[in-house]
Design a protein that fits this description.
CATH topology: Rossmann fold
Number of domains: 1
CATH architecture: 3-Layer(aba) Sandwich
Number of strands: 10
Shape: globular
Strand order of the largest sheet: 6-7-8-3-9-10
Order of helices and strands: EEEHEEHEHHHHEHEHEEHH
Bound molecules: adenosine-5'-triphosphate
Structural class: alpha/beta
Mean pLDDT: 90
Number of helices: 10
CATH superfamily: P-loop containing nucleotide triphosphate hydrolases
Amino acid sequence: MLQLLGLTAGYHGGTVLHGVDLTVAAGTVHAVVGRNGAGKTTLVHTVAGLLRPASGRVLLDGLDLAGRPAHRIARAGVGLVPQGRRVFASLTVAEHLRLAHRPPRSADRPGVWTPERVLGLLPRLGERLGTRGANLSGGEQQMLALARALLSSPRVLLLDEPTEGLSPELADRVHSLARTSADEGMAVLLVCPSPAQAIGCADTLTVLTSGRTALRMDGAAARADAAPLRAALDLTPARD
Ligand SMILES: Nc1ncnc2c1ncn2[C@@H]1O[C@H](COP(=O)(O)OP(=O)(O)OP(=O)(O)O)[C@@H](O)[C@H]1O
């Protein structure tokens, strides 16, 4: 499982995350929601090692990864689908998949993701194997970013707004892949642009407000009554 304890981080001496505590159990999807600028991407980047925390711990099955370089954190089993996809413009889909594929070396990795399995679930990528990143559509780039993360056989999958700009059909596909990954034992942290999405797919969720945990609740409780979630986000029913 992934456990964040008192995570504090920011930029250029300023603080964005103020002592965030958050737990994502193996086999579950944990959604993080919050308004623009609440610190969601900062949280994901700090966990992934792209940003060094000022203090706090990032525990992966008890091992503290806080402050380690990103490649070490990836090797420890943290996969990232960054906001904005970040695929390589000059590499083809097939090259991306080949570079990303890291068969699990130990039995502690949940699920087994092979290129064949990923392409079976994302068949559009299979049709674009020879296409360079720069020539993929936004949705195809998003699929590729997800495929790349899965092929690294992570124990924790960080998805930063992975459905941004996708059609409803593709967005459903992404959520169902997140669900499948969790059902096979992965801990999935999903940054959601809207509370409706979080309610639809999360086992547990956190609302971040100005870099602080404003609310933590079960997905089932949020599905039964979304009022506390909306109140934490300061949303009136008409806004979402
Ligand atoms: N590289 C950076 N340098 C300085 N400040 C930054 C940097 N990245 C983000 N910030 C600031 O940190 C705060 C949190 O940004 P962050 O991107 O984490 O929010 P977010 O919740 O992911 O927002 P959004 O929903 O708009 O993606 C914002 O005030 C933002 O301006």
